[in-house]
Amino acid sequence: MIKITIEDRNGKQATLGIPSDVSLSLMEVLKAADYEILAACGGMGLCATCQVQVVKGFEKLPPRNDQELDMMDILPNADQHSRLSCQLRINEEMDGMIFRIIGGD
Amino acid sequence: MLNTDICIIGAGPIGLFAAFEAGLLKMRCHLIDVLTQVGGQLSEIYPHKPIYDIPGYPEIKGQELVDKLMEQIKPFHPGFTLGERVEVMTQNPDGSLIIKTNDQTEVHCQVLVIAGGLGCFEPRKPDIDRLIEFEGKGVNYIVKDPEIFRDREIILAGGGDSALDWTIYLANTAARVTLVHRGDTFRGAPDSVEKIFKLAKEGKIDLILQSNVIALNGKERLQSVSISARDNSLTTLKAHHFIPLFGLSPKLGPIAEWGLEIDKSAIEVKPVDFSTNIERTYAIGDINTYPGKLKLILCGFHEAALMAQSAFKYVYPDKKISFKYTTVYGVPTF
């Protein structure tokens, strides 16, 4: 079991406990936890509605693939700590990390 | 005006299969899609990716499935309007519907089926002060007619291929072209990137890196653009036009304004027959939602079959529907 902290669009933080062998993306976990995330494309990294900002632990994440880097280049509200949560698989390394939900419509 | 029994918005796998299920019940179909080819996401996004959960196919590529669906619906000669976006839906006193596209194509139908998948891809709008206010008054999200920019002062924003391409193109026609980019590098096609830096070096364009456009200014029309650099310093530049190019994002589009019940960008339907709150209008596939909804192609196929059974009463109000197996009766043609 790992714990990650999620900050919603209103700045409210909550900690989620997730089995580390869950085999889901962070986007799927956020949707399951009823966070307002559209994820219109279903996890293919095309719509960027699942965008998050990594508040703590950015360096522990695997590097972005080409698809995600291309998307980051065109997103108006992305910065160097932005990620697409659909591209992040839940793993033990994520324990203790903090994510802020950014992705709008 | 085109006349048909069922008008289907969206020519993805579910829209195509809906034409088959309708055809079995002798209902004619006309399909409209904003893309210029059939197949929806399958053809547009992952034509060569394998799909593993189509019953009877341990593995099938997106485009192969589309090709097979097209073959399957051939006996029913569905009509297609491609490359046009559905804008307006009106209902006649007799209940039948008229669908209009942005190219003024009109379809008269007894039943409307929305199989729109993700929706239409529309320009992503950055969070910039007064952006919406200046739409059509200096703000352009796409370059339709480059001539309107001739001898004008243009500011573009974005770091993708389209931002690079249009900056290069407009450098020749506009009076002044400025490209504002958040980063200091570009991931676009190497040729374009090289050209951009060359044009900047030669003074033919202005390149403002590590900066964001944060506000637009003007009275009736756009007059200037405020740009914030990474060190928070603020610059204001004169501009006749501002072109933000931040890619496309899927949206419901004009459908959202039709009075359909919508939950989180999906159309709410009754799970019995996938009808919406508007009579004679159905929504199937990824665009709908109901308790237990799964966004799977196979679920969309199932929804298409049930929709067709329910839609029959509007197309043939005097006939009684009789359920038939294709194995016993074959596939009728018309």
Question: What can you tell me about this protein's structure?
Answer:
The complex is a heterodimer of chains A (105) and B (334). The longest helix of chain A is centred in the middle third of the chain and has 9 residues, at 66-74. By secondary structure, chain A is α+β, with helices and mostly antiparallel strands. Chain A is 15% helix and 24% strand. The mean pLDDT of chain A is 90. In chain B, α4 crosses α5 (190-201). Helix content of chain B is 23%, strand content 29%. The mean pLDDT of chain B is 94. In chain B, the strands form six sheets. In chain B, strands 1, 2, 5, 6, 7, 8 and 20 form a seven-stranded mixed beta sheet that branches. Chain B contains seven helices and 21 strands. In chain B, a hairpin with a 2-residue loop joins β18 (262-263) and β19. Chain B has 334 residues and is of the alpha/beta class. The A-B interface holds A 36, 38, 40-42, 44, 46-49, 69-71, 73-79, 105 and B 45-46, 118-119, 124-128, 157-160, 163, 182-183, 186-188, 212, 244-247, 249-251, 264-265, 286, 295.
